[in-house]
Amino acid sequence: MEPVSIDALSALDAHLTEDERMIRDTVRRFIRERYLPRAGELYEKEEFPKDLIPEIADMGLLGASLKGYGCAGMNAVQYGLLLQELEYGDSGLRSFVSVQGSLAMYAIHAYGSEEQKKKYLPEMAAGKMIGCFGLTEPDSGSDPASMKTRARKDGDDYVLSGTKMWITNSPVADVAVVWAKLEEGDASTIHGFIVERGMKGFETPLIHGKMSLRSSVTGEIVLDECRVPAKNMMTGRRGLGGPLGCLTQARFGIAWGAMGAAKSCFECAVDYARERVQFDVPIAKKQLIQEHFAEMGTEIIKGDLLTLHYGRMKDSGGITPQQVSLCKRNNVGKALEIARTCRGILGGNGILLEYPVIRHMLNLESVYTYEGTHEVHTLILGQTFTGHSAF
Hints:
By secondary structure, this protein is α+β, with helices and mostly antiparallel strands.
């Protein structure tokens, strides 16, 4: 019999609107025609396809879930579907779009002044200005409240000092949303600042030696007495809730994206198993291989249904950070397991960039960690269910 695809078995299309299917299919064609033919080469050379940014912007994918200021204003499901298709191509490509839209642009949209929104968002939506998001530090990852980056008022400016680490897009960014502690009386409060390329004391060195997310540009943000005009402070939100609100937006998209990576691995492994002959038969006829596909296919469909359910909730009335943690933890964890299983099915060929599996598997090792580690999301859910904090 002919194999049945994941999408056909899940029957997800019946629950999507015509516009949602159209956006998904448009991005799907783009990925297959414009990205996948060079995906392995980009990964091997540690290159991000900057030449594709205008096309990505023209499709309305930058800041896609935001309204106004040149943004597409897509609903949560539309946005999730496009991220899934991007990550089918590569996690690095999805990360670029996520950081631009769900972190940098979202922060300005949610917490910035009208002047800031008008200045930055249209340029960022058009891909003419690239953004990054500076929260994580060398000694402050899962505990962002322990950040050491400081801001002090000096006349009409703020002076920022500190280092941010593992910052997607920073080496190519025109603008950085940076979070720092500002001394206010006897206490310090976290504030967001918009730092522009060219401001004295602002450097973004590239991080070398990555074996994961090689097609993503990752660097640091070094602030050495960086002078930022007071008008560049985002005054719409004070405290840790500001950056955490941005992370919640990004985590929701990651839950969708991870299923795209899982589908790419799954489809590759199915095709390979149907063609790879051992002991005179395709290995797809072997019971242990079929068990793998049964388990993986079930988890992918469950992941799709989970994100669709919460996506509809997000559009109709909103979802809680705990629900987003559940999505991110489940889908990324399952996607990584699926990638590892598919690598095994491909045997020695599974480590070749000729196939997408090893690339996705290594990428997902990073996705498993960023935007809240798997363990942190486990503790969030544990606290949610028991009422007791283990942090």
